[in-house]
## 1
Amino acid sequence: MHELSVAQALLERAEAICRAEKARAVRRIQLRVGELAGIEKRQLAAAFAAIREGTLCAHATLAFHDVAAVWSCPTCRVDVPRGAPLRCPTCGRPAVLMAGDALLLERVELEVQDV
Amino acid sequence: MCNDCGCGDPALVPVDVHERLLAGNDRVAAHNRAHFQDAGVLAINLMGSPGAGKTTLLEATARAFQGKTRLGAMSGDLATDRDGERLRLAGIPAKTVTTGTSCHLDATLVHDTLHDMAWQKSDIFFLENVGNLVCPAIYDLGQAANVVVLSVVEGEDKPLKYPVMFKDCDLVLINKVDLLPHLPQVSLQGFTDALSRVMPEPRWLAVSGWTGDGMDAWVAWLNARRPVRKVPRVSVKLA
């Protein structure tokens, strides 16, 4: 259940951004979660909901931008079919993970005083 | 003003961030890595399921080095000092990191524990992670290499079920191979086939921490990665 420590890191970062921008609260947090990022989204959302009470993120919603894993040949640019050995189907070279391992804080939306 | 409905709610201001969520851990890991490199110590993050044989493998590693190489370790455990005790009995200066409810080591835990140890006196320092194929995978500790211990009794499909653990792994030690004759349902080839589907360049060794099979190859793998120790600077006083 490492999602709790990830949620803690997320909460601290979002609050720090909120303070730096002199905003009142965090309303929405958008994350990019790769298929191979090693994060279970539902667990992360549950952990976040459990720790945000009384913080600047108390009413913040989490939005996830899913990214599928893509292994490709760095030379031929051919994708490896899912579940197949991670070698280029054409030339046999080891494939490279082109997408799907990132766990990124993409954007936060902040509630500010209306001017 | 709210752009969607003009209701007069406080305006929402988007801030683009685009940073790794574990950037804080990564910064501490980079700091640990610099310490290990400057001291010429090879740091290995040793991971695997509970019962995969990580501690037994380290005991066998100590026997295989025959005291010619200085080993050190910290051992992450939810509870008890058993692994640390076993390693010290095997001649490896070791400290247990009791993680409580936390299921993995992180870079800060490693950093704080290093401060209480004479880790610089080791040539190879093992970060024996908490037994778990899930959580330790995404936490960089500052190691030079990731090694996963996978025992044959766990089944051939474990790499397919835990791809995150294996994708950044530098070496898989397929452990307890002495039990293969008793396990007609699995084969070494079944394990290596599964590894080829989660690692682009699977590197593995068949070993048994119990019998010592394969330990020579493991010792050679470690020795090949040992950094050159920097010669300490000696100040020369001019007469």
## 2
Amino acid sequence: MRLEIGNILIKDIAFGSKTEVKDGTLFVDKDELIEAATGGDERIKSLDVYLAKPGDKTRIIPVKDVIEPRCKVDGKGNIFPGVIGDVDQVGSGRTHVLKGAAVVTTGKIVGFQEGIIDMSGEGAKYTPFSKLNNIVIKMEPIDSIKQHEHEEVIRLAGFRAANYIGEAGRNVEPDEEKVYETKPLLEQVKQYPDLPKVVYVYALQTQGLMHNTFFYGANAMKIVPTFMYPTEVFDGAITSGNCVSACDKNPSYVHLNSPVIDDLYSRHGKDINFIGCVITNENVTLQDKKRSSNMTAKLVEMLGADAAIISEEGFGNPDADLVMNCNNLENKGIKTVLVTDEYAGQDGASQSLADSTPKGDAVVTAGNANEVIDLPVMDTVIGHPEVANIIAGAWDGSLREDGSIEAELQVITGSTNELGFFNLSAKTI
Amino acid sequence: MANFYILTNNPMVEEKYPEITEFEEDSTVGDIFNHSRDAIHLGANLINHPLAGSIKPNQSPYKSLVLSDRKGDLDMFSLTLIEGANQVLKKLGPRRRGYAESVLEDFQVIDLDLLDSAIDGLPYEYHE
């Protein structure tokens, strides 16, 4: 499967009378975007659009998802298959990306909330999304709606918005181009017979309400582990329905730009043979965890891998999946590298994960989510500033009277992302 | 007759599964962990993971654990998990303030949803 990615570099955004890209500026027709994002969903009471640019004294809170606008210009299917449009097979052909722009969704879902993106100041240093030109969708559903539907309504509105904006890149000549290719297994193995064969084990958070991830629109809770061409994610095969754990959830933007897959491709044919991905889930019962981790190890073995990268999403319960996947693969003689973040306490002295194994001797960490940070006052707040007191990682009084916030790093969207999308880490001292 | 039961302090769980729920109204998450650990020492198996989702155990005031009725040898796997969860709870420390009613309801809904996932995925050896 061969995919060309054409990046159209977006340096600025503004509202305009037509949604289009002109000389690196993305103009958005606000009314048309509102109509497209609403999509005739009668469960939406209000939907408004704001712009937040790098350097603005703007705070977005609470953030639900961040989504990159893309469009499929050649090859089967469309972006977000099974979510927007049909479930055609994606991952080949050509895809245009509005690189530097993002759709951010905000609005209350349940009483406790999390996820802050500051566009400037101290907080901006801790999130990759402060560097993007963000189109913020703030929406509220009708009053009678229950929690499950509420989550779905806001999730789908975000994808419709990103899909609409992505279309603006269809006929624009990209500024840069990248080509990714993975051949069918036997051919791929033959292509670099002397290099170690590496598989990526991509664990998706799938535990229930506000903890779900979708594969071609299907809730990944119900899947058994399966093979995937790595290029499929670049076309939106995996979408996030994850609303908790702001610091270490994988927003859809991060799936679309999977740094693990991108990095594995950059070494592909040089020092490794990246033969593919196995996606697996993170469920609630211990039997489901055992089934998925056993099956993951079996699939990785069937692929003939010498080594595997394993990533997780979330904290606590998923640590068990991470450790089981590590043990099962190592027991089959397949070397593993784990990617995670840490909850090591505010002083960094506590045990970092809820589970551990001596076989996990090669681990990449994306930082300590309990680290305390201080966020200054902003001129503009998009969303619901009052929730700063009840977000995870905050405490009563976190939100000071002047609007500044003292809280743990876990309040910041993407700060300790467990796919390694950001630049934080931690050291043993 | 069911051969498992739910230990919970979540009233929404008690309401949905009255026949199979041991409801401890005023218990904390720590109490639920401790009482489950006691049951595990008496031979029960833990069926769902004690750390639910990404909501930290000191963040939600509710916890629902599914345990087998089994009485017999100690299942070390279950014990390791519950002790590990207790360690996490102690590390994160207590929350010092209460929640509004609507927020409590949302925590109940999420706890119930994660429990429903567990009941849906119940191993075949268990039945309601």
